[in-house]
Amino acid sequence: MMALDFVINKGITPTFIWGSFDSVLVIGNLRYENVNKCSCFTVSAHQRAIIPVEDQKPFLHSAYQNHSKGFHRDINMLPKPLTSIDDSSSASDGSKVRVAYQGVPGAYSEDAALKAYPNCETVPCDDYEAAFKAVELWLVDKAVLPIENSADGSIHRNYDLLLQHKLNIVGEVQLRANHCLLGLPGVTKKELVSVVSHPQALAQCRTVLNDLGVDKVRDQDTAVAAKTVAINCVRHTGAIASSRAAEIYGLDILAEGIQDDDENVTRFLVLAREPRIPGTDQPYKTSIVFSLEEGPGALFKALSIESRPLKQRPLRIVDDSNHGSSKYFDYLFYIDFEASMTEPRAQNALVQLQEVVSFLRVLGCYPMDTHV
């Protein structure tokens, strides 16, 4: 297990989750493949070209720039979310990066998109699947989607979608939560009887909500909750959402930073059709996924991490003449390590890892976001 020892000795940090995919990867003179021959680093010839768009240097975005004050007065004018079957949109004309995110205007995912590309045109999508497809169909240039939260763990659905689609990770965004208690103009906190928001936001603001003695009402998204309060105009109902959602939907901020944990951070991935060319000009991170023929035991002992079964082939039967037959789960392991693919140590680790795995795919090599 030389490759795994390398990972530990070099301080490479592992993460994990479950999912499935079949692919072939070519990096320089290295080739990793399995039976389905799907390339994660190519775009098929039938796809139509668009004018290339230069990546913009990320910086911490402090205000929402795409909506002016009072835009909430006609909520129907807000952009309609794309669905997973929507194919009626034009590609970017090159003047702005078009970035897909899940949710409606005012969602934290849109905040993350604006942090990555401050001058971008954000494109809301109904669900994560629609955001992936929007990039694949050339409807947008990038997608920014959450992958893990420091308080609530991994977003399993997006790990699955990473393997089901042929997109590449080209960046990451670390976004600190700043939950705000919102209400209709003129309403005070004492008037609130109920507060609506996403279940995770409600759980992350439990102390303040318990002190107020309000009913907690679940909604699909924080920004959707703010929009609902604005549309229904019920004075005794508040919402937990971002400060920008308050501006978009014309709500007052009754309290700011109400989360229990001030260090609550969500990590987002920036996805694109083409991979980013690795460099050494700044700290880089590489994300990989692999599977082992021998089962989860070897990796569990080496890295002491949790593992999850691969859904499409959950059980493997092994015959042993001394002990009879036994069954165990097939697993996929996701690992992020802090190194560029241009570095010899990263290349050596992948070469050694290839010797012991049955499947290996590099999901992307990209600059780390060190500004939280």
From TrEMBL:
Quote the subcellular location field of this record: Plastid, Chloroplast stroma
Top EC class, one word:
lyase
Q: Where is the Prephenate dehydratase domain?
A: 98-273
MF GO annotations: arogenate dehydratase activity; prephenate dehydratase activity
Give the EC number(s) listed in the UniProt record. 4.2.1.91
Q: Name one GO biological process term.
A: L-phenylalanine biosynthetic process
Can you name this protein? arogenate dehydratase
- Species of provenance: Pisum sativum
